[in-house]
Amino acid sequence: MFDTVIRGGRVVDGTGQPEFVGDIGIKDGKIAAVGGKLGSSTRIINADGAIVTPGWVDVHTHYDGQATWDPYLSPSTNHGVTSVVMGNCGVGFAPVRADRRDWLISVMEGVEDIPGAVLSEGIQWSWESFPGYLDALEKRPFALDVGAQIPHAALRAFVMDERAITHDEATPQDIRRMADLVEEGIRAGALGFSTTRTLIHKYAGRKYPPGTFASQDEVVGIAKAMGRAGHGVFQMTSNHHQMESEIPWLRKVAQENGLPVAFALVQTDNTPDTWVRLLDALDDARRDGLPLYGAISGRPAGILMSWQGSTHPFIGHPLWPELASLAWPERLAQLRRPEIKARLTSMRELAPSIENDSRMLYITQSFQKMFALGDIPEYEPAPETSVAAIANSTGRSELDIVYDMLMEQEGEAMVYFPSFNYAYQNLDHLHKLLQHSNTMLSLADGGAHCHYICDVSMPTYMLTHWVRDRSRGDRLPLEYIVRRQSQDTARVYGLNDRGVLAPGMKADINVIDFDALQLKSPYMAFDLPTGGKRLKQEADGYIATMVSGQTIMENGQETGSLPGKLIRGPQHLS
Predict the structure, then answer these.
(1) Residue 64: pLDDT above 90?
(2) Closest alpha carbon to 571 in 231, 287, 199, 124
(3) H or E segment at 458?
(4) How sure is the predictor about 348, in pLDDT bands with cuts at 50, 70 and 90?
(5) Of 77, 258, 317, 536, which is least surrounded by CB within 10 A?
């Protein structure tokens, strides 16, 4: 007698092997049998015609604060995610002394665009050390499994105090202390250590997080501590256009600790072909037996411009602060006035905050990279549909076109700006990156960038776009894409008890109506603590998502079941 039998589905087991039709039997939270026609069960899930896959393992999230108040870590659970890893990009909330809590919130707010007021209201502080943070998480109810990494910014400030914030070079004593704390945290169950080198990450105006300019002695010293503890991933968000210069010391880190090293690998507009040379570097590392991985995204890093968000071409207009201060209904009413449109679209100069910020200036004025997102979101838009192309063909001004796009859907429409990974104006390079043995699906950023990015739907997109719907280039097999976001991501992080549908494995499972699978339009929700807003995106087609054999989501709705747990260190079959 099984607890549950998933009957008659198209089993895509996560190994990359061809799908087959059969049953899956679940007993005591684990998969007990796979294939054929299984016997009786307390519960039957009819999967006739549906695909049955492992639950998705998302290794790049920022739920470090949200995990202390939201057991579902939405919207990840809307997209079949059953395990998440947080604490990426060097930012997080432990270790921390009481007088540094607000400062850590300010860093997270600046780097990951999570409202500080939301974090201040939502986080229930009860820890100082990283092991203490894990203990606090372990007491929380969760629908899915949650793992954490040690963030460099918090660690450095804990050890070096103000010297960390002013980017003083760490002394040998500082490095030993940081290394000891990392070893302690890894032994307590941290899944890794994270840092950032990118100059995009800033807080409190124009400050860079501690660790951004850390010496090789510092990062290698920390890496050695991970090696002593015996597990963990060294995760780094790179300064993308200078990533080639980072490879030598990352190789040294991988060599010193013998553990996975993962760096963010994206294509930028100013260095569009660097990804090719980075793949060569990954090939070299593999030949040398070094566990070096490029952490890649399955689509462009998508900035979503909207009247309710924080980014669009009109934010530099002198009138915009006045409009932004209005409640949404009144703001929309003003935006509908022809004289307001005329003032905004006749913009002659930009606010200094935009004019003096090269990245923001590029994002808000590069009309060749702006596209209407549409009711059915299109993340690989054709060049001829850009705002610049439409302006060129119609003789209308670019600002006039963007304005009208934003006014669609009762003023809640979004304009898509593919920031990274769209220098070629297609995703052909991602097609190659996705097939490289030393790349890893990552960068969905669940929980972060509340006001202008919503890439948390990446796991669903991998199926809809890359397997079924892509029309501007080659697709990829269903079995391969399933493996990439289940077994492959799980194995890099040592989660060897999940990611494959096989007897003895954890019963983390998705049942999906593949033909009906569809991303919905992102929208602005006001459901964070203090009524804070965030972009959300949901999907149709997930019949059921299970964690440890319990259904946590059914037809897009939370069931109330909370079988998730804190993940402490590597996981093995029992």
Answers:
(1) yes
(2) 231
(3) helix 458-461
(4) confident
(5) 258
DSSP state of 473: S
- Considering the domain architecture, whether residues 322 and 286 belong to the same structural domain is answered as no
| 175 and 109 within one domain | yes
Which pLDDT belongs to residue 87? 98
Mean pLDDT of the 195-209 span: 93
List phi, psi (to 5°) of 418: -75, 100
Statement to judge: residues 79 and 151 lie in one domain: yes
Same-domain check for residues 195 and 126: yes
Residues 63 and 155 in one domain: yes
Q: Looking at residue 551, what is its pLDDT?
A: 98
User: In the structure encoding, which two tokens stand for residue 42, read together?
Assistant: 């307390």
Q: Which residues contact 22 (CB under 8 A, 6 or more apart)?
A: 8, 9, 11, 34, 35, 36, 37
Q: What percent of the chain has pLDDT over 70?
A: 100
Q: Distance between CA atoms of 477 and 466, rounded to whole angstroms?
A: 8
| HEC readout, 368-432 | HHCEECCCCCCCCCCHHHCHHHHHHHHCCCHHHHHHHHHHHHHHCCCEEEEEECCCCCCCHHHHH
Count of domains observed in the chain:
2
d(CA 503, CA 492): 21
pLDDT surpasses 90 at 357: no
Close Cβ partners of 290 (under 8 Å, ≥ 6 residues apart): 251, 254, 255, 261
Enter the tokens of residue 336.
């509908």
* Number of CB atoms found within 10 A of residue 480's CB: 15
447-503 confidence digits (pLDDT tens): 999 999 999 999 999 999 999 999 999 999 999 999 999 999 999 999 999 999 999
Q: Are residues 152 and 256 in the same domain?
A: yes
Q: Does residue 145 share a domain with residue 109? A: yes
Pairing of strands 509-512, 542-547: antiparallel
Q: What pLDDT is recorded for position 409? A: 96
Whether 85 and 221 map to the same domain: the answer is yes
